[in-house]
Amino acid sequence: MKTNVFPRIFAALVLLAALFACQKPDDETIPVLKVPQPMILATGGSQSLEVASTVAWTLSVEYGGTSTGWIKLSQTSGEAAIGVKIQMTVDPNGGENRRATLVLKGTTLSTSVEISQMGTSVSDAPLWLELPALDRAGFLFGTHDMKGGAYAGAGKSGVRNYSFYWDPNGRVSFWVAYPLNKDLCGTGNYNYDWTQAYDPMVPEDQQPNLTEHSYGGRGWDGEYWNRGHQMPRADRQLTQESVMSTCRTTNITPQCSSFNGGIWGDLEVWVRGRAKELNPLKDTMYVVTGCVQEGSDTWTDNYYQAAVKVPVAYFKACLRKSGSTYTALAFYLPQTKDAYDKGEFTGNFKNYSLSVSELESKLNTTFFVNLENLPGMDKAKATSIKNTKANW
């Protein structure tokens, strides 16, 4: 009996075509999407993205939460090409922080970049004990993880390193805040590395260039202004990455060499010593370190790239948890020519101690805003702790 083989041949061809369709083309590689600034200020703005793909591609936005449509792209598809420029425009954000994901797809491969934008409402800030109030218009809040990158998942994953409150006009952080104990300090012996000093969480044109040298100009002792750490390198000697994260511009300010290596360095060592006394499995020192630029008439030119106002003072606010007991202490150290002339840069930092409440009044800001929310704590107890100078 003669059998018609055409249907079988056709079926085989269809199956063969399907199999080929499922295979990745030999020349397809993972597409590349470059986003210069993935963390965006509440004011919004535009930036140029770059796409590279060996096959035809599409670019789309996947929004997290209920806020949609706030990212506009000048182009969403194209043919295989390298260095395709796409303009991304982000609307102003008057609400809570928000996130979205840019997804670049080829034929079978894809890549993605998470975009986050600050809002003018910051009620969704993490409830970490070290955080002060986020109460200054136009400042940028961000957090680094222990590998030096942005803290993932809106503060819900990873291991936090330090948070910063960036002043785009002064080109320094008003403060950095971080937890501190023996385990977080680490025991490594890693070196400074300034090659990645630009912080990817802040627009690059807001930052001084500290990658190859310190700030321009000289301090009152005749030395160049130091790249002074707010959180010391020695507080994060866990890995080379964690040390590199302390060399971001968001953690650096111009410090007079004799101040940095004198009274300020002594205070850093003392605070770290008090933190290392704690049981790292149960207890922590919560530290806020910051600088004051108001009243400064000294600017560094950073070798003619970006002017930075030299702080007139530095401060530390410390909250120490030991068992179920919380105690607090603060310091306010002047960094002025007058203080240098009087020899105060080599003085005793303990002469500049004050209560956290006194520091709050001096700076018109609130420290440790989440203390009163602890179980068994209330505003009156938190205020009492901040009113009392600890004797560590």
CATH architecture of the largest domain, by name, is 3-Layer(aba) Sandwich
* Domains (count): 2
Q: Whole-number average pLDDT?
A: 87
Q: What is the approximate shape?
A: globular
- Can you tell me the CATH class of the largest domain? Alpha Beta
List the helices and strands in order.
HEEEEEEEEEEEEHEHEHHEEEEEHEHH
- CATH names the topology of the largest domain as Extracellular Endonuclease, Chain A
Keywords:
392 residues; seven-stranded antiparallel sheet; alpha+beta; Immunoglobulin-like; 17% helix; single chain; five-stranded mixed sheet; Extracellular Endonuclease, Chain A; 8 helices
Topology:
Elements: H1 6-22, E1 32-34, E2 39-40, E3 45-53, E4 57-63, E5 71-73, E6 77-78, E7 81-90, E8 98-105, E9 110-117, E10 140-145, E11 160-167, E12 172-180, H2 182-185, E13 226-229, H3 240-245, E14 252-255, H4 257-260, H5 263-276, E15 284-292, E16 299-300, E17 308-309, E18 313-322, E19 325-334, H6 337-341, E20 353-354, H7 356-363, H8 379-387
Parallel strand pairs: 2-9
Antiparallel strand pairs: 1-3, 3-7, 4-6, 4-8, 5-7, 8-9, 10-11, 11-12, 12-15, 13-14, 15-18, 16-17, 18-19, 19-20
